[in-house]
Amino acid sequence: DEGHDDGLVLGYTSMLPSTEQAANFDSAYDVPFSWTIGYDGLAHMHGREDIGLKYRPKMLKVGDYVGLLAAPSGFLQLILNGNVVANVQCEVPIERDLYAVVDLLGNTSAVAIVPQARPPADP
Questions:
Q1: Considering only Cβ atoms within 10 Å of each terminal Cβ, which end of the chain, N or C, has fewer?
Q2: Residue 76: which of 110, 113, 107, 119 has the closest Cα?
Q3: 3-state DSSP assignment of residue 121
Q4: Host H or E run for residue 23
Q5: Measured at the alpha carbon of residue 48, what is the angle toward residues 43 and 109, in degrees to the nearest 5?
Q6: 7-47 residue pLDDT tens
Q7: How far is CA 43 from its chain centroid?
Q8: Region 81-89: what's the mean pLDDT?
Q9: How far is CA 109 from CA 36, 53, 57, 123, in A?
């Protein structure tokens, strides 16, 4: 819907919420211990102030490929059609189990998971 300023949110959480807890989340922003990118061009990082981004998910088109990489370097990298479009230092605890966070906000109506997807050779 073109009337929305926000869109797809992707991220990770280090705490798997129960079904009851998840039912009470209004958006990905409410997921505890999470690191997420999207909304209206925002990175929401656990324990830090939100970070504004140039990336705007409301501009995504049907057929775009979007991925999120928690890199060993400590950066969270948003990849759009093979190109890194956001690179945020955030110290995601990659040594712990991480769980995907996906929120279909605003103009996003559907996503498809690509099994065995790989990041670009040099993200």
A1: N
A2: 119
A3: coil
A4: helix 19-23
A5: 25
A6: 899 999 998 878 788 888 888 988 999 999 999 999 999 88
A7: 8
A8: 92
A9: 18, 22, 12, 27
